[in-house]
């Protein structure tokens, strides 16, 4: 496995590549078309391509594919036998009325993955019926039991991050990460205090949907000669409407110009911009096949110039 650029998960001792892999699509038939548009063998090849490129940080969740994502990731790991860094998540579903359900959910995730611990365990989203304090207490217990190396949250606001951080500090456990939607087309973390809180608290910012489900790869440009059909629920998403895609065209055109200068793709430039944005940011694009995995990996190993970074930043402002 190649050595690549690395970043640390907050104040923990866990070092990961500057680019991770999101596995939402693995085993998900309803949204991503698993079993129709791609199959288990495609995922196996994507997994191998990631490791060949030095990308060994995989993010999954118990609700991805109703547990299939965890099962597939665990199977890939056993088949390949290379060490990887695994992050998964607890879903605070309405039926879970007590934070004690977290420990049972964690055991179920470990069983699906067929491992005795995970490197990062995250709360998938905040939920008013389960207090932040009680969830952090349960996460601390999971760490004490040796089933979790580090703990994180997802979709937490800056205020919620501070509460979680303070509660974990009672156990001398750092808040390792907050996983939040962040891309050139979705820059709210820059203005709502979340990115600033990550800097202040030394928390890793794991950026999900960094390519906006394919929009920032350029393949859905409205006037493209080979624009693929928008499949699944995405075709009903406002961001994929022709009007929105027309509005983002100045940004896509700028990314295309910069990409040509570096012999890179539009998506690789979009990912590189996020990585360069802040040392705490770790994008986790998805990869349904080996080609996508290799394409993602090429976002590392080179740098945008300050002028290029500023041009892209300015072009993205027009989409707001």
UniProtKB/TrEMBL annotation:
<dbReference type="InterPro" id="IPR020471">
    <property type="entry name" value="AKR"/>
</dbReference>
<feature type="region of interest" description="Disordered">
    <location>
        <begin position="219"/>
        <end position="241"/>
    </location>
</feature>
<dbReference type="Pfam" id="PF00248">
    <property type="entry name" value="Aldo_ket_red"/>
</dbReference>
<dbReference type="InterPro" id="IPR050523">
    <property type="entry name" value="AKR_Detox_Biosynth"/>
</dbReference>
<dbReference type="InterPro" id="IPR036812">
    <property type="entry name" value="NAD(P)_OxRdtase_dom_sf"/>
</dbReference>
<feature type="domain" description="NADP-dependent oxidoreductase">
    <location>
        <begin position="19"/>
        <end position="315"/>
    </location>
</feature>
<keyword id="KW-0560">Oxidoreductase</keyword>
<dbReference type="GO" id="GO:0016491">
    <property type="term" value="F:oxidoreductase activity"/>
</dbReference>
<dbReference type="InterPro" id="IPR018170">
    <property type="entry name" value="Aldo/ket_reductase_CS"/>
</dbReference>
<dbReference type="InterPro" id="IPR023210">
    <property type="entry name" value="NADP_OxRdtase_dom"/>
</dbReference>
<protein>
    <submittedName>
        <fullName>Aldo/keto reductase</fullName>
    </submittedName>
</protein>
């Amino acid at each position: 496995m190649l050595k690549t650029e690395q970043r640390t998960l907050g104040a923990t001792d866990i070092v990961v590549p500057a680019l991770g892999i999101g596995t939402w699509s693995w085993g998900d038939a309803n949204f991503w078309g698993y079993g129709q548009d791609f199959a288990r063998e495609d995922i196996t090849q994507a997994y191998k391509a990631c490791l060949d490129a030095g990308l060994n940080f995989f993010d999954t969740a118990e609700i991805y594919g109703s547990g299939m994502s965890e099962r597939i990731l665990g199977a890939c790991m056993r088949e390949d036998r290379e060490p990887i860094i695994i992050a998964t998540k607890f879903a605070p579903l309405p039926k879970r009325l007590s934070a004690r359900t977290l420990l049972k959910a964690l055991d179920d995730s470990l069983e699906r993955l067929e491992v005795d611990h995970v490197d990062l365990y995250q709360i998938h989203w905040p939920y008013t019926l389960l207090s932040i304090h009680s969830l952090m207490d349960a996460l601390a217990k999971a760490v004490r039991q040796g089933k979790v190396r580090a703990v994180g949250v997802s979709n937490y606001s800056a205020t919620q991050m501070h509460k979680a951080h303070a509660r974990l500090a009672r156990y001398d456990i750092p808040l390792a990460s907050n996983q939040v939607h962040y891309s050139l087309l979705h820059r709210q973390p820059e203005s709502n205090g979340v990115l600033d809180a990550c800097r202040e608290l030394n928390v890793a910012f794991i950026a999900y949907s960094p390519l906006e489900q394919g929009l920032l790869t350029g393949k859905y440009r409205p006037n493209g000669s080979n624009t693929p059909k928008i499949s699944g629920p995405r075709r009903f998403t406002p961001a994929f409407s022709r009007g929105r895609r027309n509005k983002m065209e100045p940004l896509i055109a700028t990314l295309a110009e910069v990409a040509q200068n570096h012999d890179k793709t539009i998506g690789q430039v979009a990912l590189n911009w996020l990585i360069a944005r802040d040392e705490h940011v770790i994008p986790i694009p998805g990869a349904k096949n080996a080609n996508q995995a290799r394409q993602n990996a090429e976002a590392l190993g080179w740098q945008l110039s300050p002028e290029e970074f500023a041009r892209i930043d300015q072009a993205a402002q027009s989409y707001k």
